[in-house]
User: Fold this.
Amino acid sequence: MAEDFKFVFPVVGPLEKTEFCTIFSSFKLTSAFPDSQANYFGFTLDPTEPNRVWFMSRARMTHTGQLKIGSTIIEPSGKVVEPCPQILSMSFDKEGRCYKFTGGYPVDRTVGNTGGLGGVFGIVYALGKSLPFPEALPWHPSFRWQVFYKRIPQIQNDFKNLWS
Assistant:
């Protein structure tokens, strides 16, 4: 990792190198999911940022150890966690050190058992738990979105049919 390393996920970050190492080492993901398989694939160089590599993950893991996230402790459940496919990227400096790591972005939220959530949020959700903020919950359309997406086109169509 470069000294100016940044961790940037959809809701978390950017975290500096020290913050990232402190926070993520406290989760003990390897202990909680010793059989974890990240299943990385599709490594591609970015055509406009040649120092950046994009790739995907189709992880699978079984919860056989204690998971600690902040003050939340989730005891082993034996549940299999199958996150949705996610896209990640790593950017490298001239010395080959990673200075930016992005990820946790769901590609298809209909796949897996994480409610369409990426990263640790999805893992917690798949275990039947939740973190105390809305960003850690699956997306649901708001009333405003439903009006915009469904009702306005319906009203336009009704008016069109009324005058034809």
